[in-house]
Amino acid sequence: MARLFEDGFDSGDFSLWTAQENVQGINTIELQLPHTGLYAGRFYTNPTTLAAYSRVVKDITPDVDIYARAYVNIQKGLPLLAAGDRFYLIRFEDASHAYLATVGIRRTTNNEDKWLLIGKSGTPFAPAVYGSIVPATPTWVCLELHVRIATAGAIEVYVDGVKIIEVLGDTTSFAGIASVAFGITTKSATASTFDVDVIVDDCVIAQEYIGTSVTPPPPSHILSINSNVSVAAKVNATPVGNTPVSVSVYEGQVTVEVPLEVTV
């Protein structure tokens, strides 16, 4: 089992992806509000049409058991306006780019915005399967979609590491999973148009459950020097990524903080 692909957009572009796709949408890389690192992907669809999308796609070697996870932060679009309004955030496709399963948010007839799974189950596609209510306040959410193609198949959705939707059964009518899309993979409005603005970060495609990834800050080696003392120090250390060095001066004392991975 292995991770097949991961990207937190910290390259500052979409160069690791197979394609960028948008209709009435915009894909950008943003310094604002990354979940981790320096950058995140931002996906926007404008309110002028009933249907739109703004997404990035990664092709993989066709597989029968795939997990895909992203951290998503919905800046605009909730609450939805009318029953049936919806947008999707992760999508599995076959080699012809027909969708096999997708997860997103839809307004129910009770005017509740809920997580929604649509997956192929024989012919035609299965009806919508709802999960829990989605908070309207912008916040980071860990969203994960899993499809296992088998006689004893499964389609599952996890939110913040908790399984909220599970559909079990024969999924052998699926073609192999050949690509995964992240972003606003589709937006559909029933009547009144609305725009959607979503920040996406820490995307992973894997052959096993991924789950949440809360990474503690790396340790800092602090070296303090004042004008009256000469200090020499030696450590075995490796700088972590492109993390910045913090330098502060207070009452003649210089403090340098460098995030390091230290071996003793």
Helices and strands, with pairings:
Elements: E1 3-7, E2 19-23, E3 25-30, E4 40-45, E5 51-63, E6 65-76, E7 86-93, E8 99-107, E9 113-119, E10 129-133, E11 140-148, E12 153-159, E13 162-169, E14 177-188, E15 196-206, E16 220-225, E17 236-239, E18 246-250, E19 253-263
Features:
264 residues; mainly beta; Jelly Rolls; eight-stranded antiparallel sheet; seven-stranded antiparallel sheet; 19 strands; 0% helix
Percent helix range: under 10%
- Overall structural class, as computed from helix and strand content, comes to mainly beta
Rg value: 22 Å
Number of domains: 2
CATH class of the largest domain: Mainly Beta
Our measurement of the CA-to-CA distance between the termini, rounded to an integer number of angstroms, reads 32 Å
Q: Assign an overall shape.
A: globular
Number of helices: 0
Report low-confidence residues grouped into runs of 5 or more. Answer: 216-237
CATH architecture of the largest domain: Sandwich
Number of strands: 19
Portion in strands: over 45%
What kind of sheet is the major sheet? Answer: 8 strands, antiparallel
Order of helical and strand elements? EEEEEEEEEEEEEEEEEEE
Average pLDDT works out at 83
Question: If you consult CATH, what is the topology of the largest domain?
Answer: Jelly Rolls
